[in-house]
Amino acid sequence: MLKSIKIKNFRSLKNFNMEFNSGLNVIIGENDAGKTSLIDSLKILFSKKKIDMNDFNEIENPVTIELEDNDYTYFMESKVSEDTVINTFKIKPSIEKSNQIKGELESEEFNSLDEDEQKLILKKYCTTFNTTYRSNSKVETLKENIIKELEKEEFTEVKSLNYPISFLGSREFENIDSFFENTFFKELKEEIWDYKIEGKTINQHIDDYIDNFKEEQLNNENAQELNTQLKEFLPDFKEINPIVTSEPKLNLKINVELLNTNNQQMLLEKMGDGTNRRTTLAIFKHKKDKNDLVYVFDEVETHLHIKAQLDVLRLLKDLSKIGKQIIITTHSPFLINQVKLDEIKLISLDADRGSQIFELDSTTQTQITLANLGIMNIDLFFTSKLLIVEGESELKFIPIMYEKLYGYPITQNFLKIVKADGIKDIPNFIRIIKNSFSKTDIFALMDNDADEETKERLNKWIENGMIENSNIFVIGQKEFEDTFPNDVLALALSKYISDECGYEVNIDVKEIQKIRKSKKFSKSLGDIFYNMTYRGFSKPTFAQYLAFYAEEKDIDEKFIRLFKLISD
């Protein structure tokens, strides 16, 4: 599994570090924050994409990508020299992996294998460490070369880096022809050279043929003449020894047809992107039990409707449950809200336009509190302002009143409104939320009936910089409802009762005036409502009626100041 990556000087990834989860990694962030650059860096590291000069943040400095998994560290350095990009690839096993390989090659179990079986194991490590392998090489020689590489303290330079990783871009679809070739014929391409004929593998037959051919060529008249001429001009010359390395490859031409229930060919290229995307995901679902350990999807939701997006997420979670590592980028709020908080990594740009990873506090207490407040993952990462209100009435009133005054929803300001369970809980919620919303401006709207303990806790958070004093708004003489003029209260209550009764009712302003000095004003309003409807009075519903029938001149000026702060 991938553990961590360090990237320098690659686009906005100037000095970028990130640790991977062993299961699902959901990379989110605004456009141009560096999400695709992170995916591209993995592609470049494993030769799935080329780097060019436009990728260098500073052309005079090298791009470096260093990726660590449980067994190896993979490294790539790119430099620009005379308008040419020069890439160097290196690999280094961990101490544990080195000891494991040496132990394997020196074990009794390895020594008990026949020569062909030993060479298959050695061939794999020769490929990894870029050491010469020939089918007629001696086992001991191959072992010595590999162990020599393992004992180096520095990285081993290799031609390229390989890893069991699959990529799918936002506008890419799996090519079915190549998929079938790599899935069903890959073993044939790789193992056919080890197929034995008359006791020898095809590879050995090829090597023997090359050796015989080389000997014939070196002994013919033309070679002998060249030998004589070289001795004449090079006194120390002995003989010509050309080294011929065979790299047998098998090219297969595979064309795949998908047939429908009428036995007709399904032409995917003429179907929509959504169909092609689903076909691709079906292929990846089939591949989940295969050798790839890591699946990387850039903007996995592209071309898919909501239900299909959630189906994709279910597939990805299933893959992670069977030991696969998943790395996806997404803009989809549906996907972001369906994963665990600690599976999300936000890429954002710092003051110098460099990409950095930002992760939120995901402790149990925080997650429970946020869930109770109705705060979803998408709010945590993209909300810039958060308003805590004391009760349900304010929660209902504010969005309606704001849109009525400004002509657009309050959420357009990237604001989230959450309800505390009473005024005593507001200081505690400020503390917990500020730990998660570290870069978010917090506002609080509360009734004028806080006790001394609550006031002291609020003052403490103001002193600690968790909330600005100017961002706390205390309304009413005691509660939300008593901030409104009598005529507005009478009109809103009349409309509420009329809608409940089914006929028009008009509450006299004098009745509101009578209850103004009652100990609990909202309870007295509820009594009027009950005496006329014989139904329970809902303060949140009444707050909505107040929002529909109040005008700007009718609301507390503190609401106006709050709305202006939120709009800035």
UniProtKB/TrEMBL annotation:
Residues annotated as domain OLD protein-like TOPRIM: 381-449
Where are the bilayer-spanning segments?
none
Q: Per its UniProt record, what InterPro entries does this chain match?
A: AAA_GajA/Old/RecF-like, Bact_Antivir_Def_Nuclease, P-loop_NTPase, TOPRIM_OLD
Domain Endonuclease GajA/Old nuclease/RecF-like AAA per the UniProt entry, residue ranges: 1-336
Superkingdom per UniProt: Archaea
Record protein name field? DUF2813 domain-containing protein
- The organism encoding this protein is Methanobrevibacter olleyae
Q: What is the lineage of its organism?
A: Archaea, Methanobacteriati, Methanobacteriota, Methanomada group, Methanobacteria
